[in-house]
Write a structure and sequence with these properties.
Order of helices and strands of chain B: HHHHHHHHH
Order of helices and strands of chain A: EEEHEEHEHHHEHEHEEHH
Largest sheet of chain B: none
Largest sheet of chain A: 6 strands, mixed
Number of helices of chain B: 9
CATH topology of chain B: MetI-like fold
Number of helices of chain A: 9
Structural class of chain A: alpha/beta
Oligomer: heterodimer
Number of domains of chain A: 1
Bound molecules: adenosine-5'-triphosphate, magnesium ion
Number of strands of chain A: 10
CATH superfamily of chain B: MetI-like
Distance between the termini of chain B: 36 Å
Number of strands of chain B: 0
Structural class of chain B: mainly alpha
């Protein structure tokens, strides 16, 4: 595969909930190893966009391709694509009745059909990657938010996805716990994982993202590298928005 | 003295035979009723519209009919359309329908209490809806349904005595026969009652142990504390 080839292509995604038009034509391409951060005001459709990529929400119009194969309108094959597209949620959504280890291995065994012993090894390896190996036998209720989120990242990683979607992975966490999760994500980015990250963490976006996309009113209003965002005039709206956010923070 | 001899040589042997039948009725009915309950609950939550409607009608019909009437229909009514069931089989069929319908209500309620994110996370990993139900939703819902389901099990032990009306000589029936023959109503039914109490007590303890074994931190703490009191 040529370096320039796109892993993920998102083309003209539209999505409405009843009368409410949430996504009004979103298009972008993702290269292998990119980390794209999505920022923008609440309710502009960032979560909906991520969910349209793995079809948790069915887009009304538009297409998604993974490695040139169409994800939209793929029927039962969607479960194959969902294995290839990891997802990490704001509220972790760990399986409450399973230990950290079982949370990570269940899809390996039941979805990928991996031998249980092999799955266990792999799950422990992924937990080690996020610094949670010691907590393997603990249940979600026994973990801090930061720990739970790291387990959920391990759960996504275990499937060896081509890309991982993060929907505000640190928004439910205290600043301290936020840091431990962002460190893990930064490490992943450095290791070449392809990631789409909805976040309000501007520090993370500026230091880790290869591209920043500013979303507003259901479309990508402005996009570019973090450097461009800091210097260019074009990121006016985005800066305005960030100014508001950080303004609240320092008050 | 005479009473003790009557109980040990005449009453107990007869009652134990009946007790075996009662236990058979319960142990055959419970697992089938449990599976029927799961099936009805899952279909009512995730089934297509017509299936949901059908399940609602079935459950409503069963809940709305006196169990004894249902047993009479199964035993005395069905032969007229060519289906002849033994008293034992007809009882089991009736009990399964009753147990399944009520169990499904508990399971459905518990499924509703499982957080929405659990299904979303399961599907995001590539699980089909049915895999997610089987591996994620039901294990959580069934844990929460244990208290309700165990109540249903205890009711089953007690209403299994209705099988006597279909000529099945289970515990109550065996007692009735002895009592009538020897004119010992008081002694006999006290002993019968005590045997039911033993069955119910064993069940209660077994349920507590089960609940404790299946307890998950943060999900089901009820089982632990209940047993600690004991
Ligand atoms: N399943 C749904 N049914 C109806 N409306 C929905 C649904 N999901 C999202 N919406 C609406 O769509 C709009 C966009 O929601 P979305 O969650 O995508 O925004 P967001 O950009 O992620 O916002 P936030 O920063 O608050 O997470 C909101 O107005 C929301 O109420
Ligand atoms: Mg959101």
């Amino acid at each position: 595969m040529a370096d320039e080839e796109y892993i993920l292509r998102v083309e003209n995604i539209h999505k409405s909930f009843g009368e409410l038009e949430v996504l009004r034509g979103v298009t972008f391409d993702v290269k292998k190893g990119e980390t794209i951060c999505f920022i923008g005001p609440s309710g502009t459709g960032k979560s909906t966009l991520l969910r349209c990529i793995n079809q948790l929400n069915k887009p009304d119009d538009g297409h998604v391709w993974l490695h040139g194969e169409e994800v939209t309108n793929s029927g039962n094959r969607i479960n194959y694509f969902r294995q290839r597209i990891g997802m990490v949620f704001q509220n972790f959504f760990l399986f409450d009745h399973l230990t950290a280890l079982k949370n990570v291995e269940i899809a390996l065994i039941k979805v990928r059909g991996m031998d249980p012993k092999e799955a266990r090894e792999k799950a422990l390896y992924e937990l080690r990657q996020v610094g949670m190996e010691k907590w393997a036998e603990h249940y979600p209720a026994e973990l801090s938010g930061g720990q739970a989120q790291r387990v959920s990242i391990a759960r996504a990683l275990a499937m060896d996805p081509d890309v991982i979607l993060f929907d505000e992975p640190t928004s439910a966490l205290d600043p301290e716990l936020t840091r431990e999760v962002l460190e893990v994500m930064k490490l992943l980015a450095e290791q070449g994982m392809t990631m789409l990250v909805v976040t309000h963490e501007m520090g993370f976006a500026c230091s880790v993202a290869t591209r920043i996309m500013f979303m507003e009113h259901g479309i990508i209003q402005e996009q570019g590298s973090p450097d461009q965002m800091m210097s260019d005039q074009t990121f006016e709206r985005c800066k305005n928005f960030i100014g508001k956010v950080t303004g609240y923070g320092t008050d | 003295m005479e009473t003790i001899q009557f109980i040990s040589t005449i009453l107990m042997p007869a009652l134990l035979e009946g007790l075996v039948i009662t236990i058979e009725l319960v142990l055959i009915t419970a697992p089938i009723g449990f599976l029927l309950g799961i099936l009805l609950a899952v279909e009512r939550v995730y089934g297509s519209r017509p299936v949901v409607l059908l399940c609602k009608i079935v459950v409503g019909f069963i809940k709305g009919t006196p169990l004894l009437l249902m047993l009479f229909i199964l035993y005395f009514g069905l032969p007229s359309i060519g289906i002849v069931l033994s008293g034992f089989s007809a009882s089991v069929v009736g009990f399964v329908m009753c147990n399944g319908a009520y169990s499904s209500e508990y399971i459905r309620g518990a499924m509703g209490s499982v957080k929405e994110g659990q299904m979303i996370a399961a599907q995001a990993l590539g699980m089909t809806r049915m895999q997610a139900v089987r591996l994620i939703i039901l294990p959580q819902a069934l844990r929460r349904a244990i208290p309700g389901l165990s109540n249903e099990f205890i009711y089953l032990i007690k209403y299994s005595s209705l099988a006597y009306m279909l000529t099945v000589i289970e515990l109550t029936g065996a007692g009735k026969l002895v009592a009538t023959k020897y004119f010992t109503y008081t002694e006999t039914f006290i002993v019968v009652g005590m045997l039911y109490l033993v069955l119910v007590t064993i069940t209660t303890i077994a349920v507590m142990l089960l609940e404790r074994k299946l307890a998950v931190p943060g999900m089901t703490t009820a089982g632990r504390s209940a047993l600690d009191i004991l």
